[in-house]
Amino acid sequence: MAASPRFKVYDSSGMYRAACHEPEAAACLVSFFGDGATIRDGHQKKLWVEGVDGCAGESFDRVAQIVIERAGG
After folding, report:
1. What is the pLDDT of residues 22-63, one digit of tens each?
2. Residue 45 forms part of a structural domain
3. What global pTM score does this model have?
């Protein structure tokens, strides 16, 4: 059985929107949801805050690298 996706995406109001296996997919979604949207490790630890950490739409790969580093590899 497949594992639950690690990366969770929340919009700026704190509403849970999606779960992603790939951090690049999560980056695409936070870019869509805009400032204040977050990528989290599970449902707690914030790894990226759109508009605070940068603009995910500029480079999904860069966001993925930062997210992986902040998640501990």
Report:
1. 999 999 999 999 999 999 999 999 999 999 999 999 999 999
2. yes
3. 0.94
Residue 3 has pLDDT above 90, yes or no: no
Amino acid, res. 10:
Y
Q: Could you tell me if 47 and 41 are in contact, meaning their C-beta atoms sit under 8 angstroms apart? A: yes
Helix, strand, coil shares of the chain, percent, nearest 5, are 35, 25, 40
Radius of gyration, CA atoms only, the chain: 11
In a domain, 2, yes or no: no
Total of domains in the chain? 1
Classify 64 as helix, strand or coil.
helix
Residue 68 DSSP code:
H
